[in-house]
């Protein structure tokens, strides 16, 4: 998927929020978008999701199945959580059972019979996440998904992101708190001054935030990339352990699938 010379402003005479943005996303990539409040992260995500059309430039090769969880999930709808998710499943061609399973995984089973309007911000955030995952997305876009989540769900979310990207999906996550800064192989974009640039996050990350919480979780993870097909070749690259994250990040940014053996 590619953004070519994309510029955007909300009104004809309004300020440019993004100007001449050039970006590529590759299957299996995980991209973290950071930037100050009001920098344009949500706007970029809405352009990627296709909810906003560029004012200039073009977006090409957006995949067919897009999951999008907005930064604020709209709860002013006259449904219970279960009825809303069943309805969204029907629209998306997913199974209602997957909504129930996801609710269990994201510690939200107890919310299913509640009216949407009664949800707290963190609970509403979870329902926004579940609806984005109802059918396995080829492009998953999460706008500030960690805000307001309980600890169990915060630990589960990186595993879900890893599963989607391991299956070849592209994941883009905006997060001004940098929760994914040490996510293995993640690409990082900084939105500032109406431009989007790759950057290397500051050290000092808290790995416990983004890695499997304990070995049992690690055991449950599928391999990071599927087994290669007959038309693919595998090249092993041995690097110093301290350089592994950087090398993997560069390879993924160039569109290669990577797998770490240690
Ligand atoms: N619907 C809109 N109409 C007009 N201006 C908007 C609209 N949505 C956002 N903006 C403006 O566009 C700019 C970028 O907003 P955006 O929400 O994309 O930034 P952000 O980096 O996601 O910020 P935050 O971290 O606070 O969510 C801001 O100046 C904001 O006020």
TrEMBL record:
It comes from the Bacteria. Residues 197-229 are annotated as: Disordered. The keyword Ion transport does not apply. Keywords: ATP-binding, Nucleotide-binding, Transport. InterPro entries: AAA+_ATPase, ABC_transporter-like_ATP-bd, ABC_Transporter_VariousFunc, P-loop_NTPase. Residues 1-217 form the ABC transporter domain. Residues 208-222 have a biased composition (Basic and acidic residues). Signal peptide: none annotated. GO terms for molecular function: ATP binding. Gene3D superfamilies: P-loop containing nucleotide triphosphate hydrolases. This is ATP-binding cassette domain-containing protein. It comes from Streptosporangium amethystogenes subsp. fukuiense. The lineage of its organism: Bacteria, Bacillati, Actinomycetota, Actinomycetes, Streptosporangiales.
């Amino acid at each position: 998927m590619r953004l070519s010379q994309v510029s955007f402003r909300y009104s004809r005479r309004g300020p440019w929020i993004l100007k001449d943005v050039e970006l590529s996303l590759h299957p299996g990539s995980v991209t973290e978008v950071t930037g100050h409040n009001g920098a344009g992260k949500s706007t970029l995500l809405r352009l990627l999701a296709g909810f906003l059309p560029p004012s200039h430039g073009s977006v090409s090769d957006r995949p067919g199945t897009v999951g999008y969880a907005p930064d604020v999930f709209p709860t002013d709808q006259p449904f219970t959580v279960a009825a809303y998710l069943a309805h969204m499943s029907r629209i998306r061609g997913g199974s209602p059972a997957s909504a129930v399973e996801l609710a269990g995984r994201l510690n939200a089973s107890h919310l299913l019979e509640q009216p949407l309007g009664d949800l707290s911000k963190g609970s509403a955030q979870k329902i926004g996440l579940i609806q984005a995952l109802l059918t396995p997305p080829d492009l998953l876009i999460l706008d500030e998904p960690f805000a307001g989540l309980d600890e169990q769900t915060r630990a589960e979310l990186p595993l879900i992101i890893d599963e989607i990207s391991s299956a070849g999906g592209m994941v883009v996550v905006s997060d001004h708190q940098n929760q994914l800064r040490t996510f293995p192989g993640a690409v990082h974009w900084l939105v500032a001054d109406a431009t989007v640039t790759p950057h290397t996050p500051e050290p000092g990350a808290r790995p416990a935030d983004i890695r499997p919480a304990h070995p049992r979780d690690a055991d449950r993870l599928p391999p990071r990339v599927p087994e290669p097909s007959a038309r693919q070749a595998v090249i092993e690259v041995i690097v110093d352990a301290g350089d592994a994250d950087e090398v993997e990040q560069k390879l993924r940014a160039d569109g290669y699938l990577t797998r770490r053996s240690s």
